[in-house]
Amino acid sequence: MIVPPRKRFGPLLLIAPAAILLGVFLVLPYLNIVVMSFRMPGQGTPYGPGFTLGNYGKFFSDFFYVQQVINTLWIGFLTTFICLVLGYPVAWQLARGASTFRALGYALVLSPLLVGIVIRSYGWTILLGNNGIINRTLTGWGLIDGPLPLMYNALGIIIALVHVFLPFMILPIMSAIQGIDPSLEAAARSLGASKVTSFRRITLPLSLPGIQAGCILVFVLSLSAYVTPSLIGGLRVKTMAVTVVDALIDTFQWPFGSALALMLSVTGAIFVVIFGRLTVMKWKA
Amino acid sequence: MTEVSIEKLTKDYGQGPAVNSISIRIAEGEFISLLGPSGCGKTTTLKMIAGFEDATEGAIRFDGRDVVHVPVEKRDIGMVFQNYALFPHMTVEKNLAFGLEMRKLPKDEIRTRIAKVLDMVQLTGYSERYPRQLSGGQQQRVALARALVIEPKILLLDEPLANLDAKLREEMRVFIRDLQRRVGITTVYVTHDQAEAMTMSDRVVVMFGGRIAQIGTPSDIYERPANLEVAEFVGQVNIIRGKVGNRVVSTAFGDVPVSGDFADGAELMLALRPEAVELLPINSGATGAPAKVLSSYYSGSLVDYRLELATGAVVNVQTFPRTRFADGDQVLVHAPSDRFWPLGIVA
């Protein structure tokens, strides 16, 4: 098809503001991080003269850092999985359930996002701490002898992350389910499928685009979460994001911190790409 | 082949009955249309036959067995939806296989049946396509094939042609009707399009406000409508009024004998279809009512005239365009007395 030349620039003009914003404030700084990660460590300056691969060498030679990436990924997987399991029924209910409580449902789903991240994390410390509400109640009822380790470990981080990222799982799945024509389920029933079979063979696969989007969102957000892991993980469990900030701010190692940050991004991106490949949908245009 | 019997079927959502105690007997292999304006209860009736809606009262029998408490998936129905409801994530073949897999048929039987049904709907070679790769008419035929391939007891169609363009719609009417005859399956067809109902059905059930206004063959419905509502819903009609005297109604077109039991002096409404009359030149010497042409609409095979009688009443007349009259022409309207149909007494 021959496009008149005047029209060819129309779409470009439309995306220009967003593209400029992202270019100046995301792509350029990111490139700066890439360059920074190859700099020599500085003495009292952000970086020294010349370039080196040493920052990456340090990462791969010290299993401590590799282990941290693995821990972070593992927390990301579990948070994503738990969000999916908890979020899907809620999304289904919001999309297909009676409309009476839908507005209330939306409000409840979005409520974690309405509370500031620091306040929310401190809230979890009040609940999960050794002297926190949960442990004190269970001890008081005589159900446990000593406090359960709910905080300063991966479990506490996952609980808090699931809480805040659940909406990012529920909303895309809900919108995917809303986009499924209810007559498809009716057609499946008319062809002899029970409600369960009709869900398994029709609704679930058709909501896969929402599952895909929700999982990628929650996974990426979990990997890069900083405030929650640092407040709830404390000094004992550190995720990559916390370590990166430590390197940059506490020990002032900008080049090494940049290398760490990039290793986290790259591994995260690899898993997102693999996940995307695994969930490719041939039936979509 | 299955006989379907609907007895005093009622559906009440809580704001008065949407379907009000209707009874229909559908013979084996019969093609029945439920015809009526939106909100008349035709779709609700279909959904109750399918099992998507619970009946508030009444019975639905397939070959004598009440299925009211049988869930949809156990009723053994084939249903075609208005928007086709093809599974977008499955190829044509998978769509067709779905119902057969639910019935746990062996793989090679599934394959043979799919090949047969694809041939029947003239879509051989399309089995690997996804629904989005098909045209509206092709999707429609896949939906039909998917409903038929399971060899259900009855076939239910919910306004299946509403989303097609006019030409395709007419082709599909013939296609569906031929297919239904060949398979010999008992069929219930819901539509608000009277032309569709007339051309396809053995019998038409006309519904208004949750009640059945008339059940009859297409010609019963058109030529002998049960009441004014039916006459006006099915095609165009002129309502001619006149007083009964001596078993005869005197109208502007002359005396019309009526066979019903009407008291002398009662004012009667008579239905007169626009194509039932003949238009003649005013000086032709034939009997008829003189009238003036108000306007005419030429549509190729037919011409529609609006005429004003001497009484001031307006009648619509449809003729072949062999003799054309111009606006303002005086004409003679000849209506044979056997083309009038009494609709009842003016209330």
TrEMBL record, chain A:
Predominant location category: membrane
Entry's Gene Ontology cellular component terms: plasma membrane
Signal peptide span: none
Subcellular location field: Cell membrane
Keywords: Cell membrane, Membrane, Transmembrane, Transmembrane helix, Transport
Stretches that traverse the bilayer: 12-31, 69-91, 103-122, 150-171, 210-232, 252-275
Membrane topology, record value: Multi-pass membrane protein
Superkingdom in the source lineage: Bacteria
Residue ranges the record marks as coiled coil: none
Domain annotation ABC transmembrane type-1: ranges: 69-275
Gene3D superfamilies given in the database record: MetI-like
Record has Cell inner membrane as a keyword: no
A Pfam family it matches: BPD_transp_1
GO biological process: transmembrane transport
Family: Belongs to the binding-protein-dependent transport system permease family. CysTW subfamily.
Protein's recorded name: ABC-type spermidine/putrescine transport system, permease component I
